Amino acid sequence: MNSVPSLNGFSIIQQEWFAENVPLSQIAKEFGTPTYVYSRKALTDAFNAYEKACFKPNGERRAQVHYAMKANSNLAILNVFARLGAGFDIVSAGELARVLAAGGEAKKIVFSGVGKSRSEMIAALKAGVKCFNLESIPELSRLNEVAASLGVIAPISLRVNPDVDPKTHPYISTGLKGNKFGIAYDEVINTYREAASMSNCKIVGIDCHIGSQITEISPYLDALDRVLELIKSLGDNGINIHHLDIGGGLGINYANDTPPAITDFANTLLNHIEAKGYGHLEVLFEPGRSLVGNAGLLLTTVEYIKPGETKNFCIVDAAMNDLMRPAMYEAYHSIVPVKQSNMPNMTCDVVGPICESGDWLGRDRELNVQAGDQLAILSAGAYGFTMSSNYNTRGRAAEVMVDGSTIHLIRERESIESLFANEKLLPA
Ligand SMILES: Cc1ncc(COP(=O)(O)O)c(C=O)c1O
Ligand SMILES: N[C@@H](CCCC[NH3+])C(=O)O
């Protein structure tokens, strides 16, 4: 099987794949492979699809996008979104430093994650982030203490675990009782009361995020209803919520997925919130994958075709260290030859050179390729480069962004020397 999603920013012209106006073969020639290729147009259009839903008919803003930068944190990509007015969702001091370096504004940053360290809290308080999304009483107490030591007030939301099934891969569900994320639904009111009693925390919002690659709207509506009920009870307890962060998680089409379109998805949630009488709340979205996933691909070259006893292998120069998702979640990424040909197809597994049987990128694909040909692994813009590693002492891939007819190198390929530059031999 080889299903191909329709993509914005990438197309086939005269039997050859292009990124905007640039043939992928030209990128391979100039920058080598493996290389991640992003389309600025695709990034911009995805962001604007959210923005379209973020305004009321009178022009007043009703929602703000906070890009979940864990999906792809290259500075150039962050900068494209920052220029478009995005806020950001971060999960570490590293992400904070990156987004500030890329021109993101601290006052548009929300800080998520279950395990914020003291030093991360200090960095975020000093920067002046918009909000900390907290997930437990110990974390709340620590933040209160750290804020007191700096003589500042920390703006906070509590992340609710609404216990709804997002109907996605179990490894990427986050809003079920058994997950480590969020505060159990029945504990939320008491935890807010505790937060209200803390001298250096100020309650500003409520937060929930139920999972990733979600292709249906109903789990969001279920989660929203549960969170809106909490907002009502909190109000009855004298605790007023100013913003509602509904997390990220909207899926993309990898091949045969049918997620709602971004604007429809965002409008449906925002209209639901208004219809329930909560239109006064500021709403935050934290999308990651739906902004970048289909705006990027991984370009690779075939090293060898190896006929096996039971199947053929197409051995390429990209590997699980470049794109973990197939090995980790058995995720499907469409794989296409950069130059289409009329040769007969063969069925093969597309695999990398790493010494693990789990090092595969696609299974049972129908491809007509030979050694030296290039392949594009599609829908690799999210959780591709950011989850890559140096396993087998492999330098990480180069990254380029195409903007019309221009190719920008946005990350150089890692040199081999840089991979062990921080290591030290024992004394003689
Ligand atoms: C708290 C939080 N917000 C946002 C996201 C972004 O999710 P996605 O890339 O599925 O939109 C994640 C990752 O799942 C997350 O953990
Ligand atoms: N890394 C996952 C998604 C996890 C989202 C982070 N909470 C993926 O590639 O699909």
UniProtKB/TrEMBL annotation:
| Modified residues annotated as N6-(pyridoxal phosphate)lysine in this record | K70
* Keyword Lyase among UniProt keywords: yes
Name the coenzymes or cofactors required: pyridoxal 5'-phosphate
Record GO biological process:
lysine biosynthetic process via diaminopimelate
Q: What class of enzyme is it?
A: lyase
Which key words tag this protein in UniProt?
A: Amino-acid biosynthesis, Decarboxylase, Lyase, Lysine biosynthesis, Pyridoxal phosphate
Q: Which domain of life is it from?
A: Bacteria
Q: Which reaction does it catalyse?
A: meso-2,6-diaminopimelate + H(+) = L-lysine + CO2
Q: What is its EC number?
A: 4.1.1.20
**Annotated InterPro entries:** Ala_racemase/Decarboxylase_C, DAP_deCOOHase_LysA, De-COase2_C, De-COase2_CS, De-COase2_N, Orn/DAP/Arg_de-COase, PLP-binding_barrel
Q: Where does pyridoxal 5'-phosphate bind?
A: G249, E286, P287, G288, R289, Y383
Q: Tell me which SUPFAM superfamilies the record gives.
A: Alanine racemase C-terminal domain-like (SSF50621), PLP-binding barrel (SSF51419)
Pathway listed for it is: Amino-acid biosynthesis; L-lysine biosynthesis via DAP pathway; L-lysine from DL-2,6-diaminopimelate: step 1/1
Q: Where is the active site?
A: C355 (proton donor)
Amino acids binding substrate: R289, R325, Y329, E356, Y383
Q: Which GO terms describe its molecular function?
A: diaminopimelate decarboxylase activity; pyridoxal phosphate binding
Domain Orn/DAP/Arg decarboxylase 2 N-terminal, first and last residues per copy: 56-292
- Spell out the PANTHER family in the cross-references: DIAMINOPIMELATE DECARBOXYLASE, GROUP IV DECARBOXYLASE
Assembly information from the UniProt record: Homodimer.
- Family indicated by similarity: Belongs to the Orn/Lys/Arg decarboxylase class-II family. LysA subfamily.
Instruction: List the HAMAP family.
Output: LysA
Q: Summarize the protein's role.
A: Specifically catalyzes the decarboxylation of meso-diaminopimelate (meso-DAP) to L-lysine.
Which protein, by its recorded name, is this?
A: Diaminopimelate decarboxylase
Q: Which organism is it from?
A: Polynucleobacter cosmopolitanus
Q: What is the lineage of its organism?
A: Bacteria, Pseudomonadati, Pseudomonadota, Betaproteobacteria, Burkholderiales
Question: By which gene is this protein encoded?
Answer: lysA
